[in-house]
Design brief:
Number of domains: 1
Strand content: 35-45%
CATH topology: Aldehyde Oxidoreductase, domain 3
Structural class: alpha+beta
Order of helices and strands: EHEEEHEEHEE
Mean pLDDT: 94
Low-confidence stretches: none
Distance between the termini: 38 Å
Shape: elongated
Number of strands: 8
Number of helices: 3
Amino acid sequence: MEKQKIKNVFIKGAITPEFIAESIAKHQSKIQIGAHDIFLGQVRADDIQGKTVTGIEYSAYEEMANLKFHEIKEATFNKYELSCLHIYHSMGVVQTGEICLFVFVSSPHRKAVFEALHTVVEEIKKEVPVFGKELFGDDSYQWKVNK
C-alpha cells in the first residue's frame, strides 16, 4: 500500500465563506454520501481583564502540526465509516468574527459524521501544536489557552 502524502491544512488568514461554500459544492457529485457535518471555529471578542480581543495571530510548527492533523484524520477514518474528512486551519492574523478552523466530515450515514466531527475537533484542540496570540486594540497581546 502506498503511503499517503501529508497534506498542508494551513490557509493564510481567515477561512472565507466562499471557500466553505466551494468545499461543500464539490461534494454534490459524490452521491454515496448521505450526511455531512461541519465545524466552524470563529474568533471571539472575549473580554480579558478589561481588554477586548480584536483578533488572533496563529502560528505553528507546520511540519509537526500537519503530521498531527494527518494522524488525527487517519485514526478517525479507522474508527468511523467516513467518505471524506477535510481539515483547514488559519495561519496568521484572523479578526474577531472570522473563521479560523473548518472541519468537514462526510459519510453514508449521519451518526458517523456527528461522532467523528466531535472526535476530530477535540483531538485537534488537545494534540496539534498550533498557537494563538490574542490581540487587543492597544497593540498588546497574550498567548491563548485552549479550552
